[in-house]
Amino acid sequence: MSVTRSNLVQAYDGEYYRCLTGPYRKYEDANQVARYASKFLGIDVFVREGQIVKQTSSKLNSSAQSKQRAIPSNETVEPIITNRTTIGDLSYFIPVFHGNSFSFYHEKDKSWNRFTYSEAVSACESLNAKLVNKDDLERLSKHESLETWPQILPYWIEGGYVRNFKGEEYSSTKNSKLYLRCRQPLNI
């Protein structure tokens, strides 16, 4: 298999570009491209295996289409709660859902989910929590455990805004896949 720079495609995702390549029929081919990109282009690379989805001929009615969930229900996918932090009367945490329908980004030797805005809201709500807001993110940015949290991508915050821990706000589409952090009152 011949691998060149022209095999790599950049996809615009909000304010960032992601390098995409594939699909490949063989895992070995995907790994070869990953090694090339890592060695010659000097970028961090991971290989994600996707499932082949076959289109069915059955049609969904419009009411069934509008009832689709942004994330699978709690009964089918139980998240791992990471980086739980308590400040005042609020608990902050990052849920990590595992399964084929979730996007991941590898940072700080861990895999972190990336969500669209609606998926982020649904993920927090499925855990009786809400997305953090601007003030929450500012409080968290001063916390001693900040260095253990993913920070390469910005976070969704309440209202569909996008911020990082430095307080910088980004413009983004609601379909951008970014990090999330949930907040929950301690009395729940």
From TrEMBL:
Protein known as: SPOR domain-containing protein
Classification lineage: Bacteria, Pseudomonadati, Pseudomonadota, Gammaproteobacteria, Vibrionales
